[in-house]
Amino acid sequence: MTVRIDTLGNGMRIVTEAMPGFESASVGLWINAGGRHERVEQNGIAHFLEHMAFKGTARRSALQIAEEIEDVGGYINAYTGREMTAYYARVLAADVPLALDVIADITLEPAFDLSEIEVERGVILQEIGQALDTPDDIIFDWLQEAAFPGQPIGRTILGAPELVRSFGRGDLSTFVAEHYGPEHLVLAAAGAVDHEQIVKLADKAFGHLTPRPSRIQDAAQFQGGEVRENKPLEQVHFAMALEGPNYRDPDIYAAQIYASAMGGGMSSRLFQEVREKRGLCYSIFAQAGAYGDTGLMTIYAGTSADDITGLSELVIDELRRAPDDLTDAELNRARNQMKAGLLMGLEGPSSRAERLARMVHIWGRAPSLAETVGKIDAVTLSDLRAFAQRLASEAPAAMALYGPAEGAPALMGLKERLAA
Amino acid sequence: MTVRIDTLGNGMRIVTEAMPGFESASVGLWINAGGRHERVEQNGIAHFLEHMAFKGTARRSALQIAEEIEDVGGYINAYTGREMTAYYARVLAADVPLALDVIADITLEPAFDLSEIEVERGVILQEIGQALDTPDDIIFDWLQEAAFPGQPIGRTILGAPELVRSFGRGDLSTFVAEHYGPEHLVLAAAGAVDHEQIVKLADKAFGHLTPRPSRIQDAAQFQGGEVRENKPLEQVHFAMALEGPNYRDPDIYAAQIYASAMGGGMSSRLFQEVREKRGLCYSIFAQAGAYGDTGLMTIYAGTSADDITGLSELVIDELRRAPDDLTDAELNRARNQMKAGLLMGLEGPSSRAERLARMVHIWGRAPSLAETVGKIDAVTLSDLRAFAQRLASEAPAAMALYGPAEGAPALMGLKERLAA
């Protein structure tokens, strides 16, 4: 392992990992600022800002940003999450300095040209339309709203169309000023990279930034509830969540093993019971999502209007019996899937840079694979069953439905079935 | 480069590439059999068969297939295309023999248990529903129908629901007997692999197969036309296609460069004109797809009902002006994107195994990256403009629309605009 971490004088962290044999690298900036850092009237601004980063700076037009990276065969993109915004590029080794310069330029010096803001507003409104036409994606936004009603972490990333229509240059500048401080930035790079070179370039690009006053962040509180959007789609898209551990909670490993055993692969309980034995869906899965102070154990499936009641009851029955009969074989399989998945996922520079950035944001360091594997291996069957028991007995639950959902059961009934 | 190719006595080919530094491997079977090999009454059977492969064999139940691979942390999956069906797994190095054994078992010895056929029928009908709820996916099926009406290559992979409801064991066995002959199989592996071991295992698993009588395949004929599915979605999903080169046509490199320059990245013409300057969409792209005897130059965008006319006319205007004003800068950028994309894409075992399999199917060998790069570099600006000219002056064109498309222009009008 050749992970190296440095901290600039202003608190910005830099983490790299050289991967022998690679001719390309992934380099990116992960900023601890996202949807949950927005005030209610700002909802959608973190994402709008991410779009505007690509629309020109003091030194580059929007077209130049695209051309400089694509001229050398590179790729640049970004995403906005609830706690994190990321700007990242994949380039050949020789072009790492260019990629870093472009990323610094677009994040630190966006021009916020007024006509570009107008054009991008249209793009984002189209993006919202596209999201609504992607039921198995948008449903997770609604599930989040149902889990955290009225809270910053529960709001959508894209923002409501009426707010998107209202944002101006001042809204963008305010969000940058409040949240893009050096102590919230982690620059991560993996693949064909030279740590010293990257630190030097980062210091030149980001070293002048001064720390921002500390921010107050609302603590998330899983409350639960139901969001139901009736629409004449082919399937009822069903998502439900129970409160899971946050990413620093020691329970996170049990939660991930649970998600894998319940809905992580073809051998998982939900896949076997709902799809393989009864043919009630094509897609079904469980996943353990985590934030700084909360988490979501989420289950998704898409099914026909005729089958939604049966499917949702089957899901509940599986949640209910898991604490009593999860087996050692399932624990071992889930462990092996997580360990191999980690190893195989990290054979590429992009996923490796992303993991480094997230680890440094969460822990201030990058635990080795061996350390993570040790924690996965330490989870016992009684830990796993105890976790399953706590999960099933949690009072709050959230559910989202999208499609011909008129006949779908209410959350209350499902909760009663779970508690029965 | 450590690509090695062997051919068994029965004609089956085996191609491997050892990648130093990797601890995992991708291994898969690529079969030259897919939707276009179905007779009209068989439409959907290739895909149904791919599903049934996972539903049990003489030696393993469906659950055992899943468990054996997932017990060791591996991953197994499959897909059905118009010319190819693939079964592939990603596993740690020590488990390559297991993966190969499972793949051989499920493709050669599927049990076709009658009750499993009934369950899987339900799963596939759910999959069809899910596809219809994924407009930016299903629209390419309809574009294919519009381009090749009434032809095997124009039919959907999933099949019509009424046919899916009708298939039985005999239909599955017939398709295997007709198309899964050893001369149509390529076993490919990349990553932590040992060529000799794989050849030996492949000979044991597949060496007993005897070649099938040669098949007659309908020649595809791009005819063109329009498919319009009105539905109250948020966006009108628009896809159009012109006839492109097949994958052995020397023009394929010019076609790929054209697709990249027109709609391959943020700097491409369509992205700049439609999204960046006017904000009319979130997603827009062009791609050059190729088959053995034909190809499709495809453009996709999603937009609002108000903007579909403007957007489709802009697309046509870009197709019309490209022959006259594509530049050397665009040619060079597209070349660099293709070359770097090729290199970066092939840094992972899964994409590398897939490329090897496809190359061996098409060429009987695996051209080196240098050879492919040479062909990309050989395309001149006049080649590119001449290709753009032929494309724009092709008579047939196909279009598919999904969503609130009542006000969208007819294909005829767009063709007239292109010819003007």
Q: How would you spell out the order of helices and strands of chain A?
A: EEEHHEEHHHHHEHEEHHEEHHHHHEH
Rg of chain A over CA atoms, rounded to whole Å, is 22 Å
In what order do the strands lie side by side in the largest sheet of chain A?
1-2-6-3-5-4
- Give the helix tally of chain A: 16
What class do helices, strands and sheet pairing of chain A give? alpha+beta
Gist of the model:
The structure is a homodimer of 420-residue chains. Chain A is an alpha+beta fold and 420 residues long.
Labels describing this entry:
homodimer; 420 residues; alpha+beta; five-stranded mixed sheet
Describe this structure in words.
The structure is a homodimer of 420-residue chains. By secondary structure, chain A is of the alpha+beta class. In chain A, 46% of the residues lie in helices and 19% in strands. In chain A, the strands form two sheets. In chain A, strands 1-2-6-3-5-4 form a six-stranded mixed β-sheet, with helices on both faces. Chain A has a five-stranded mixed β-sheet with strand order 7-11-8-10-9, sandwiched between helices. In chain A, helix 1 crosses helix 7, helix 9 (252-263) crosses helix 15 and helix 11 (308-325) runs parallel beside helix 16 (411-419). The mean pLDDT of chain A is 96. The interface between A and B is large, with 78 and 78 residues.
